[in-house]
User: Fold these one by one.
Assistant:
Number 1:
Amino acid sequence: MVKSREEAPSPRRPFVWLILALAALAILGSVLAVKDRSVLLRWSVFLSTDIGRGRAVFQKKGCIHCHAVNGMGGSIGPDLGEGKPSSVAFLVTAMWNHAPNMWAYMRAERFSYPTLDYEQTAQLVAYLYMASRLDARGDAQRGRLLFAKYRCTQCHSAARTPGPHDTTLTDPQAVRTPAAWAQAMWDSAPAMKKTMQEAGVSWPVLESSDLSDLYAYIRSRLHGSSLPPPMLGNPEKGWQLFQSYGCVDCHGLQGNGPGSPGTWRSLTFLQLGQAMWSNAPAMLAAMKERGMASPRLTGNQMDDVAAFVYTLRYFDPVGSAIVGRSVFEWRGCNRCHGKDAQGSSVAPALRGQGRNYNSISLATALWSHGPKMFERSQQLGIGWPRLQPSDVGDLLAFLNTPREQRRSP
Ligand code: HEC
Ligand code: HEC
Ligand code: HEC
Ligand code: HEC
């Protein structure tokens, strides 16, 4: 059939070619659009970014002028690091809720309003999210007592002279960062298990802030009171390691019970290390049973694995469009954008515009349109709508559901 057509070229052929060319263009266009969307999606659901870039945005946009992160930076606004309940939804709503006060401070400080595009917002949120996973400063005094209580002293001298088993803790690299310490403990677990068995010491199961305090104790001995360097983890590398070291074989990503990575993401670096340490005998036994060598982490690999684990929380919160419609009303967004987010004379339509919001694009939109929204809310005598972290998922579901009356014929 194809052949006969070739033999008898129809006069409509150029037209056919034109159609084909247009179709090819359309396909290319949609492939590019899909690719673009998958990039957006990736940014929103998977925090695969170099933390250094987020820190650079934080500095370049002047956030650091007013905010410290873990003690380093300005003090006009609150410290955004350790100890903040961190989730993407929390950061998005915190920035929104505090925006009017921040703007007031910016005016007072003669600070120009920092604009943020999508990628910068993603990097910034990733950075703040990671920063909040840092460990609180441990209690070195308590650490010293624990060091004796857990009989670490039986093998490790707290002084710089060899202990009975000639193993001192004198390597400053091992306490460079919390992750490095967690890694050193994990890597030595097989050797320690053996020596402990021989010495008749039972495996010390660490609790609460134990590892953090032990770290503070050893670190203060080797580094004095200097602050550890900022974290270095790379989530993408961490994911590779999680697979190549076989962690994923025993710890599937979908599970919810103990031993599921989903439950580790709220841990700090040291808490993660502590969980690994306390379960080391069980883990080493399980590995042996499967004929696996126990993985030794080198370089910054513990940072990478931890960084990966933290990204597991980075999925956009799920929500209900029905609840979202109520949230939109409760928070007063409807007063300007309309009940159905269809737009009004004072504010643009948000639904049915072909946009697909995720946490990051919503944060970017709120941040960049915020000053105008604020101005309108003052003109109309409406208070600034305050959002709760739990609103975000529902609002996204609502905004991303097409409006019914816009069904195309
Ligand atoms: C001119 C000073 C100033 C600048 C610049 C500034 N902020 Fe703020 N920020 C503040 C103040 C003041 C508050 C507390 C406002 C309040 O209490 O309502 C705040 C609050 C916040 C909060 C809420 C914190 C919490 O604990 O709830 C976040 C998040 C935040 N800022 C992020 C940022 C980011 C990101 C940038 C850079 C794009 C930035 N800020 C730039 C002054 C500033
Ligand atoms: C029964 C002996 C024994 C006990 C008890 C013991 N360890 Fe160890 N520890 C070892 C051995 C053996 C090594 C491996 C040394 C090596 O590889 O050179 C080690 C290595 C380490 C390392 C890695 C050192 C480095 O520089 O990489 C850390 C950290 C450590 N132990 C901390 C502790 C802590 C904290 C305790 C108490 C909770 C403890 N150990 C209890 C025997 C012990
Ligand atoms: C051969 C199987 C196996 C492999 C491989 C393995 N683990 Fe485990 N892991 C276990 C077992 C068994 C436990 C004990 C907890 C339990 O009952 O599930 C455990 C516990 C843990 C815990 C503490 C769990 C909790 O909820 O308190 C952490 C954290 C952990 N593993 C991290 C890792 C990491 C990171 C890797 C890769 C470097 C890894 N594991 C590789 C079997 C394994
Ligand atoms: C006082 C009126 C007012 C209120 C209340 C208000 N907005 Fe807005 N909103 C505006 C205006 C005006 C704009 C357009 C600003 C501009 O053009 O820069 C806007 C823009 C937006 C945008 C950006 C649209 C785009 O182009 O992507 C989003 C998203 C948004 N609003 C969401 C909300 C949400 C969610 C709430 C409730 C928490 C809310 N708004 C409450 C007036 C308001």
Number 2:
Amino acid sequence: MMDRTIPDNDCGKRVRGRNLDGRSLSRRIFVAAALELPLALALGCALRTQAAAGSDAPAPPATAPTVTVIAFSDAGKKTGPIKVAKVVKTNAEWRKLLSPEQFDVTREKGTETPFQNQYDEWTERGIYRCRCCRNALFNSATKFDSHTGWPSFWAPIAAENIRTASDISFDMDRTAVSCRECDAHLGHVFDDGPPPTGLRYCMNSAALIFIAAPVAKG
Ligand SMILES: [Zn+2]
């Protein structure tokens, strides 16, 4: 493929799961206010307006919007649609959770180096989750060797779990693919894939984390 102009290195670090919950955030704010109020009154001063964090703006909203995605077990079994709070973090927070390459790909729409990434030739059976939020994205059953140097799939694990959008950057007309739950950039989808869909989801390994299918007992 043609994205060699945006090289990157390999990836490594794992991230925590979905842990920014709008309700728990609101609750923390409420508890903090409840603790501060008597103290402020006793001292005879007004509560201060909390200053902006000042680092990488914008700060996440107190209550994140919700999205509906299709949940899957690590064995690839559909466990039904679930409504989840959208994962929203500041760039500073993402940088703490991701390697520089993972941050560049997922949060800055970067493209990793072809043929030198973790899952290009990966053939194990299992599912691929979002590196940032663990939303289920692809099943190994739809993976194929596209000879492009990037892991390629002919379908997502569930259409509801991704988003597509037109991408005309770098003078190319492409369709970008992102995670529905956290907006991580994943890669692009092209219409030159194999049957049965004819689609090629060309993904960045740095945006994915592979979860091996549990070994069957007996
Ligand atoms: Zn995600």
